[in-house]
Amino acid sequence: xxxxxxxxxxxxxxxxxxxxxxxxxxxxxxxxxxxxxxxxxxxxxxxxxxxxxxxxxxxxxxxxxxxxxxxxxxxxxxxxxxxxxxxxxxxxxxxxxxxxxxxxxxxxxxxxxxxxxxxxxxxxxxxxxxxxxxxxxxxxxxxxxxxxxxxxxxxxxxxxxxxxxxxxxxxxxxxxxxxxxxxxxxxxxxxxxxxxxxxxxxxxxxxxxxxxxxxxxxxxxxxxxxxxx
Length: 229
Ligand SMILES: *Cc1c(COP(=O)(O)O)cnc(C)c1O
Prior knowledge:
The chain has helices spanning 3-20, 39-47, 58-68, 86-92, 102-115, 141-150, 173-190, 206-211, 221-224; strands at 29-33, 52-55, 74-77, 95-99, 119-124, 154-160, 197-199, 216-219. By secondary structure, the chain is α/β, with parallel strands linked by helices.
């Protein structure tokens, strides 16, 4: 099956999930996750209408970005960000979904100031408390949020999570609901709609995530097929 056809099906499923939850399909941004796939695949996806791509490794994204600089597409970093990769990340990505610790906020702030740039960021939360996952714990989220709010070059605009992988996505509905509740609680705390986005939902669970309020879904396999590695 080709990328264009897979995309069409994914978009249809997004629309159906929006219908079920009385949401405007335009309120959900599709991020096509192109990790492990070569630049040609990104070009093909963009030709099929993709406007947003997600990559999880800075080094890999750098190599692709070098070849695709002029492509009209928005780059999202969705994977763990090491401090020593921040200087490259701020040059490639327009959005960073994986801010999960204060030391990283400091490094981002330093590099962004140097580049004279501002970036919208999402705070990654390890809602289910999985050992293997990155992300701030729900308990430490408020501290990280308040800290990020003070950074001059970063704008915390939402929360992100990766739900545990399960066969039946209904089992992780609570994870998505919890992320939404965390967002609402933080907005209430500062008495302002600072956090607008919920980046949640992948190939296996995006419909449930949309029903729980996702504004950005990150989809790889359902568009590009199984990853090679
Ligand atoms: C790989 C990845 C995705 C996409 O996963 P699929 O199951 O292939 O849709 C989404 N989010 C993150 C953080 C990822 O690393």
